[in-house]
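Look at one record.

>
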Amino acid sequence: MVTALRLLFLGLLAVWFFPGETRAASAVTIWPVNPVLGSAAPAAALWLENNDHHTVLLQIRVFRWTQDSTGDQYADQTEIVASPPMASVAPGVRQLIRLIRAGSMLPNAETAYRIIIDEIPTPESRQAAAKSGPQIAIQLRYSVPLFVYGTGAPTGTSAPTMASDIKEQPTLHWHVETRNGRRFLDVANTGHIHAQLSQVSLGKTTVSTGLLGYVLPGRTMEWPLAGNPGGEPLQAVVNGGLKHETIPAQQ
């Protein structure tokens, strides 16, 4: 089943100041929220639907996504192209964005990207904001992960279209590290596929009720722990699975 998610406050692009209340400038539904591009596919589809009462102008860019000791890093790239890169979407209209493979991918590997969708102010949206009375109108930024597979990548299926189609599982281990009096949960992924972690608990302590974050292949990510949680096990929903999994501690 195609999954849609209304991403209203993933990021803040710009703010127009008016004295008074705050309102979201638009509501854009994006699906799928977990697109992938299989090794044999020339392109993947991303749909944008405008649920607002005025036309929205959207800029679509694709960045290479890596991770290091400081966290997520984004860089310009030329392997994946969004077409069209700009879209004017009328109220109630669905816009197709094609994510086109324009360069060769690393063989036997998963490569991560981030699709960044920015709402651009238009005269119509400014006029609509002014007619609504005193307010702060917020321009939004939407961020969607994209995973692309080269020839021979271990996806477990020949033609995946969403991350949930990937049968391969990440290989995860964890430990708790203390630095400067603060405790951090470190999760390492030594597998070939990304790990999306949500609904995470450590022993009897809830670490995250929703999405905690991603660990890309070959990387270690850390998250601060509130209080003084201890014990085992570390449990999480991995890559949108139907049940919690127990992640083994690092030996």
Q: What stands out?
A: The longest strand covers residues 135-149. Helices lie at 123-131. The longest helix spans residues 123-131. The chain has two domains: 5-149, 169-247.
